[in-house]
Amino acid sequence: MSDAGAVDPKICQIVRQSLPQIESAFGVRILRATEAGPRGYGAGSLDTPHDVQFAYVRKVDWYLRLTPGAEKISLPVSPELNMTGSDIRGVLRSAQSGDFEALLNLAQGDVYFDRPEGWSECAGLITPENTRASDFLRLRNRAVTRSRSWGFGTDQDFAEFFDVVYCLLRARWRADRSDSLPEGIAPLIEGLEDDLRADIHKLLNAKREKAETAVVPPLPRIQIFMDSEMQRLADVSMPAPAGVASEPFDQIFSSLVRNFG
């Protein structure tokens, strides 16, 4: 991408140069690294930091310790760039319990690095059957929680306002469709009224040109849509998220440690 809201090519180069250094410094093998923040789907503001998420696997001996080590690597590189790594064991453990958020974050957004022979097994777990219910509840609840204190017509900043819009659009997709969640904004707003789609594009374009804390201009059509969708989605009943069989997760983790640890 080349627009202002997307990943900066200079940052991309820094990240790709940093990953081998991280592997060497921490004794890990990185499986995948992606841009997990708004820049990953082209919706960054001028000052939106790059949010790099990566998954890694450690050596066998690390997992055989009596006292487990940390499952995160946090590297606040600069105000413009944060890098956070997650041990694939923790990512798979969360997914097995029904929480696929970390796995989905790694699967979506612009990709800085991918080790196909390792990541493909993890990606195979991301099916609508495994993720639809839990992701719907997460997205809907995030939108409701973040907008709870708003009053109609009150000022909101771009970062918070667009986050709620994006969560609602994705929750709407999860509620109404059983296929995989798409990346980006365009597929999510297909089928909306022309005026509403135009306002969402206007919001996105304005966000790319402003700071995250800048005040969103009045967009009553979007606010009415948000209120309506929140009421509708509150009544959507989906099966409660449930953990899936542990055997596939155990097999994938074991394979990753044997092959890359």
Q: Helices and strands in order, then pairings?
A:
Layout: H1 9-26, E1 28-35, E2 50-58, H2 60-63, E3 72-78, E4 81-87, H3 88-96, H4 101-107, E5 111-114, H5 116-123, H6 128-147, H7 158-176, H8 194-209, H9 220-234, H10 246-260
Parallel strand pairs: 2-4
Antiparallel strand pairs: 1-2, 1-5, 3-4
Which terms would index this structure?
single chain, 261 residues, alpha+beta, 2 domains, five-stranded mixed sheet, 5 strands
Written description of the protein model:
There is one protein chain. With 261 residues, the protein is an alpha+beta fold. The protein has 2 domains: 9-128 and 243-260, Beta Polymerase, domain 2 (2-Layer Sandwich); 129-234. The chain has helices at residues 9-26, 60-63, 88-96, 101-107, 116-123, 128-147, 158-176, 194-209, 220-234, 246-260; strands at residues 28-35, 50-58, 72-78, 81-87, 111-114. The chain has a 5-stranded mixed β-sheet, with helices on both faces. It holds the Pfam family RlaP. It comes from Acetobacter sacchari. InterPro entries: RlaP (IPR018775). This is Nucleotidyltransferase domain-containing protein.
